[in-house]
Specification:
The mean pLDDT is 77. The protein has two domains: 30 residues; 37 residues, no CATH class. It has 94 residues and is an all-alpha fold.
Length: 94
């Protein structure tokens, strides 16, 4: 399947194998195999995101920052500035 060997991907692959078996039995087997390949998401139309953007989204998330002391938020803000300076707002590669 071209996927990393993880428990989730093994389960996914087993489900695809079962689907192929059922399709063979029912006469609906796709010999091009397109039907059975995992659908990949495309990043062509996505805008690049920087390391600073990622960390800033983390900091803005109210659930993650709720209950933090002011000193922690200040340290996170300092870390954000360091990230932005270090990466010079280069997009994060995925």
């Amino acid at each position: 399947m071209g996927l990393p060997n993880t428990p989730v991907n093994r389960t996914f692959t087993q489900q695809k194998a079962s689907q192929i078996e059922l399709d063979i039995i029912s006469g609906n087997f796709d010999d091009t195999l397109k039907k059975y390949k995992p659908k990949r998401t495309t990043t062509k139309n996505l805008e690049p995101i920087t390391a600073g953007d990622v960390f800033e989204k983390f900091m803005v998330d109210q659930e993650k920052t709720k209950g933090l002391q002011v000193g922690s938020v200040c340290r996170y803000t300092g870390a954000l500035r360091q990230l932005q300076r270090f990466f010079k707002d280069k997009p994060v590669q995925s």
